[in-house]
Amino acid sequence: MPTPPLAGGTAGPAALRPLVDTVLTALHDGAALRDGPLPAGGPDTVTPRTRTATHPLIPDHGTGPHHALRALVTALTEGAADPAHPHCAAHLHTPPLALAAAADLAASALNPSMDSWDQAPAATALEADLTTALAAEIYPHTPSPDAVITTGGTEANQLALLLARERHGPVQTVCATTAHHSIARAAWLLGLPQPVTVPAPDGTMDPAALDATLTRLDPPLLVVATAGTTDTGQIDPLDTIADLCTTHGAELHIDAAYGGPLLLSPTHRTLLHGLDRAQSVTLDLHKLGWQPASAGLFAVPDRHHLTPLHHHAPYLNADDDTEAGLPDLLGRSLRTTRRFDALKIAVTLQALGRTGLATFIDTTVTTAHHLADLITKTPALDLYDRPTITTVLFRPTDADDHTVATLRRTLLNRGHAVLGRANARGRLWLKATLLNPHTTPQDLQALIDLVTATRVDLETPTAPPHP
User: Fold this and answer.
1) What gap in Å lies between CA 263 and CA 275, rounded to an integer?
2) What torsion, rounded to 10 degrees, do the Cα atoms 335, 104, 46, 401 define?
């Protein structure tokens, strides 16, 4: 077999073009074979079929690039949960924009490593400009806000606790019972006390309970509020929480991984009032930003707040190189080798602009409200509450939790729909997290019909077999 071509250089695009055609064909063919939001049959069907189609993964003699791409990409696509399908709506799992995926191809082909300038000259400049611009969206009134690219909310939340620890020592974290699980995990990883949790009886942090908790705890304290909870998509009362933090001398971190992009919508940005009062903010554009994962961000109001992240490795940021003007990138992440995830974000922002992204956001929020309307009009279903962002919880009327869980798994196993599950108000709910701006009212009605028909099907007695 001849030496395979590389993706970079002037010859790279010519080598990539036929391979990309093979990939695109395989993506199409696999989606046609699947013909739905996910493959039917559950793990017992999907796993052996995938293994059969891709075996052996390490043959003695290679099958060649086109055969390997065709076989594996087709099998993966046939067995995928496709967030571009309107009935794939379980998680904060967005259908990525085609232009963002195309930009990701360029990032892969160029392969800059964002840990030293000599591996990423132009990428360093573009990432710095992008993070500064996005930080300014969150902190419009501070002179030098900054942000770093992360793998997502989990890494960004860990950075928040790490920097609070570096400023104050073993800080005590306080969060609502609805906070993301990464807060407790970060405290564990960093050797910090287990977070103290505050009740959230209506789905958001109870300010009175927070006040009482901060009163009895000794400093240093870090309060973590959430703008877009995982289960219900609700937003904590950010301004009120910020006021309490000021009163008690606590710092505030806001996990806006889900709700943060609402800042780009003039219609909905008021939901985030008080966001700029936090000492740090988490943002994920691979949620309500339609980016391929990962596209996370950790923002601070002043670039000097990131100084504790600085790390010295002479082969990457020697003092004389830095003094000579080469940018030092090791303080931009906890990671060393780091992918150029900024490119797809920058391409999307430039291509769509503020108005284009605002339209996407507004359309998706409107779609969630339309689904809530349909549920309200369906006697066989109960609605949890009006959506705050794009999460809609509902359940069959008079069903117990076992029925709800079984209904969800039945839809999964039949390949009909991907709905999430959430516990709220002491009951289990089906969760639709709507992130597809192409979803139509007809798609939503079809989803409602699937849920109600499946519930009837589950309750219909099965005739005994003939003797």
Assistant:
1) 9
2) 70
